[in-house]
């Protein structure tokens, strides 16, 4: 056994290119170098006061007009490196001197080579205090060798002082960017990615990350402020996590620095920022994208457009080399088990917010229903006036504003003290004279002649139940409300059975019961559970509104003779309302308030 000669493996430097291929996002490569700058600033950071002792400036500049002359330049005024430090980061592959430091992110000693994923060349200039700047250059092609011994890299050398603007810091230049990745460069998107990736670090005092385009300031990167969005939130601090092992044994992990869980459900606003897991201040990935996280609710909960926030795990888990997931071990299983446990709590908050939003959005739908009913009432008044003129032999008015002889009390005459209707104005469309949360009433319009006093205009509604005309009130008319309570029950006059009413007329308000099964069966829901208006719902609402409207109309105007034309008239009104409301088909309720 002692005579066996041990062997050493030979690793091809080409493996660096293979590892680089794990970076399939251009911005993710840029993050590696920005991350190095932030790591280098930790020497100036006071953790107790959450402030840097000097202003930290990190600049990201995009120059050039094509992939051949285009450059990404990342410059900072942080600690910097001397020639030994530069030599160490290019030679010690896989050995990071930062991985034992809980506040810095480096772990694999590979990030410096991530440039190979998108470009051919990298140039690094760095300077420490009281020293001249040092420069080192790497070319991706020199690593395309069979044996590591064949790779020869020029060591760092001193460079001209004017090539670096700060007393200390580092400047990284990525050059000869491949055309495919050059086309992906978008500073607006990069800004969003930086703000998502470093959201907790950007909240520190005295740090500034800026984007430049061809020498001109493009934008400053800022921290994300969750308080600007209303909604419900869930916060928790974890001092330990547990996971069930084999044979039911429970394994518990104590956590020195508590993990922070912050989840927010925004109030009806999609901010395009799904919950993320953060380690050492940096985003690893959105929870919905973690392949190692096995949950049946990834899309329903963690990809819900109104759910945002973060899980700050400090350094509890070990990320994969591409830093977009975690190693599959008992610690990650313990965290993921916790996330699955709180999914029901998040779902409850989502449903609470959805219910509040739903009520608000249904009020906007009520406005649309009132407008349509007002238009239908105006049309019926014109038809009634037309029929009156035919019966009395008067000339049929061809234009709005002509007058006819009174046939029915409350219509056609000029004496509005007796409840008669003159000619002229179009009243009832979008007047906002209804009562209740709907805003716009389905007012029964009157054809008032110009110059009529407001008092006379108030007395001309044929649906006014009160005989008193002395009190000053708002113009009365139908107001449609969709109420979220159990339906009223009534004994059916046909069968004698107790049935739930789909709607009722309460005073001047048509109340449509949202909890009735016929209403619920017609609700369409989007992926986010928000309500969407469908054709069946439009037909349903048109029918319920028309029943009460026609009942009151004929009670005031007189019951028509019993024949099939009664039903033709009823269905005509339903179809008229349906036609008026058809533009709402396919519209999300949440979009109605944008059209107000």
Give keywords.
5-stranded mixed sheet; alpha+beta; Heat Shock Protein 90; 3 domains; 11 helices; 596 residues; 27% helix
Account of the protein in words:
With 596 residues, this protein is α+β, with helices and mostly antiparallel strands. It has helices at residues 14-20, 26-40, 83-91, 179-182, 187-197, 330-392, 454-458, 517-520, 535-557, 564-581, 589-592; strands at residues 45-46, 51-63, 71-76, 119-127, 134-139, 157-158, 169-177, 205-213, 216-221, 231-244, 250-266, 276-279, 282-286, 307-312, 479-483, 489-491, 498-500, 503-506, 509-513, 524-525, 531-532. The chain folds into three domains: 14-222, Heat Shock Protein 90; 228-328, no CATH class; 353-595, no CATH class. The chain contains eleven helices and 21 strands. Strands 1, 2, 3, 4, 5, 6, 7, 8 and 9 form a nine-stranded mixed β-sheet that branches. A hairpin with a 4-residue loop joins strand 1 (45-46) and strand 2 (51-63). 35% of the residues are buried.
Give the % helix: 25-40%
Shape: elongated
Can you summarize the main beta sheet? 9 strands, mixed
pLDDT < 50 runs, ≥5 residues = 99-108, 395-476
**Beta-strand percent range:** 15-25%
Tell me the Rg in angstroms.
Answer: 36 Å
Mean pLDDT: 79
Structural class: alpha+beta
Distance between the termini: 87 Å
Strand tally? 21
The helix tally amounts to: 11
Number of domains: 3
């Amino acid at each position: 056994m002692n005579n066996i000669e041990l062997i050493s493996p030979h690793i091809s430097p080409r493996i660096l290119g293979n590892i680089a291929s794990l970076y399939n996002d251009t911005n993710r490569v840029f993050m590696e170098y920005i991350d190095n700058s932030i790591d280098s600033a930790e020497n100036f950071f006071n953790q107790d006061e959450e402030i840097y002792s000097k202003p930290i400036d990190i600049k990201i500049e995009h120059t050039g007009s094509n992939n051949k002359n285009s450059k990404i330049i990342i410059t900072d005024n942080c600690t910097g490196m001397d020639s030994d430090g530069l030599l160490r980061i290019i030679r010690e592959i896989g050995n990071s001197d930062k991985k034992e430091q809980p506040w810095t992110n480096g772990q694999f000693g590979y990030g410096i080579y991530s440039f190979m994923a998108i470009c051919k060349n990298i140039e690094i200039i760095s300077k420490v205090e009281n020293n001249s700047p040092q420069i080192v250059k790497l070319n991706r092609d020199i690593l395309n060798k069979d044996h590591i011994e064949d790779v020869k890299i020029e060591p760092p050398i001193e460079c001209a002082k004017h090539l670096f603007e700060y007393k200390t810091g580092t400047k990284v230049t990525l050059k000869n960017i491949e055309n495919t990745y050059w086309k992906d460069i978008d500073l607006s998107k990069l800004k969003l990615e930086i703000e998502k990736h470093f959201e907790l670090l950007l909240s520190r005092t005295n740090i500034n990350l800026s984007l430049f385009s061809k020498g001109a300031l493009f934008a400053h990167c800022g921290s994300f402020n969750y308080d600007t969005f209303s909604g419900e939130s869930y916060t928790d601090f974890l001092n330990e996590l547990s996971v069930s092992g084999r044979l039911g044994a429970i394994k518990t992990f104590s956590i020195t620095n508590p993990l922070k869980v912050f989840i927010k459900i925004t109030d009806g606003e999609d901010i395009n920022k799904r919950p993320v897991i953060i380690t050492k201040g940096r985003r690893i990935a959105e929870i919905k994208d973690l392949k190692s996280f096995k949950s049946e609710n990834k899309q329903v909960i963690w990809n819900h457009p109104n759910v945002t926030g973060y899980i700050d795990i400090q350094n509890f888990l070990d990320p994969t080399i591409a830093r977009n997931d975690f190693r599959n071990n008992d610690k990650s299983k313990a965290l993921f088990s916790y996330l699955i446990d709180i999914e029901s709590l998040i779902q409850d908050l989502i449903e609470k917010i959805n219910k509040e939003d739903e009520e608000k959005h249904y009020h906007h739908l009520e406005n649309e229903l009132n407008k349509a009913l007002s238009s239908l009432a105006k049309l019926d008044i014109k038809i009634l006036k037309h029929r009156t003129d035919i019966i009395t032999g008067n000339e049929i008015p061809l234009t709005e504003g002509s007058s006819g002889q009174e046939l029915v009390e409350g219509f056609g005459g000029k004496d509005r003290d007796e409840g008669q209707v003159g000619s002229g104005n179009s009243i009832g469309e979008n007047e906002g004279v209804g009562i209740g949360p709907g805003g716009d009433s389905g007012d029964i319009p009157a054809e008032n002649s110009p110059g009529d006093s407001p008092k006379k205009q108030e007395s001309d509604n044929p649906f006014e139940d009160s005989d008193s005309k002395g009190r000053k009130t708002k113009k009365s008319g139908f107001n449609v409300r969709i109420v979220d309570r159990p339906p009223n029950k009534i004994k059916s006059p046909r069968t004698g059975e107790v049935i739930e009413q789909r709607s009722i007329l309460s005073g001047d308000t048509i109340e449509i019961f949202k909890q009735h099964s016929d209403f619920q069966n017609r609700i369409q829901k989007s992926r986010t559970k928000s309500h969407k208006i469908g054709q069946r719902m439009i037909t349903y609402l048109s029918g319920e509104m028309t029943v009460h409207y026609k009942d009151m109309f004929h009670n005031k105007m007189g019951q028509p003779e019993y024949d099939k034309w009664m039903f033709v008239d009823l269905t005509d009104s339903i179809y008229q309302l349906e036609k008026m409301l058809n533009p709402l088909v396919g519209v999300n309720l949440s979009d109605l308030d944008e059209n107000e």
